[in-house]
C-alpha cells in the first residue's frame, strides 16, 4: 500500500487514466479483502496510507465518472458483490 501511495503522491498533479484507475481500484480492494480474510486487524488495514490511497482513488473515480461518463461497474464503493470478469 505504501508503494501505491507513493506512486499516487508523485503524480498528485496528474489525473489518472481510466485504465490506471480501474486497475488500481481492483488491486486496492483485492488487497484489503485478502488481508481481512487472513485475519489482519482492521486497525492495521485502515492505516493512514490506506485512507490516503482510498480517498485519492475515490476522488479520481468521481472525476472519471463525470469526464468519461462512467466506470463500467468498477468502484471504490464497498460491496459484498465483486466483479469477477477477470
UniProtKB/TrEMBL annotation:
Ranges of residues in domain MUN: 1-35
Domain of life: Eukaryota
A GO cellular component annotation in the UniProt record: presynapse
Family matches, as InterPro entries: CAPS (IPR033227), MUN_dom (IPR010439)
Signal peptide as annotated in the record: none
Identification of the protein by name: Calcium-dependent secretion activator 1 isoform X1
GO biological process, one term: positive regulation of exocytosis
One Pfam family matching this protein: MUN
Amino acid at each position: 500500500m505504501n508503494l501505491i501511495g507513493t506512486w499516487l503522491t508523485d503524480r498528485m498533479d496528474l489525473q489518472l487514466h481510466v485504465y490506471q484507475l480501474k486497475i488500481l481500484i481492483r488491486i486496492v480492494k483485492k488487497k484489503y479483502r485478502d488481508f481481512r480474510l487472513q485475519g489482519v486487524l482492521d486497525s492495521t488495514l485502515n492505516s493512514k496510507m490506506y485512507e490516503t490511497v482510498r480517498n485519492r482513488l475515490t476522488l479520481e473515480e468521481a472525476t472519471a465518472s463525470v469526464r468519461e461518463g462512467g466506470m463500467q461497474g468498477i468502484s471504490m464503493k464497498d460491496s459484498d458483490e465483486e466483479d469477477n470478469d477477470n
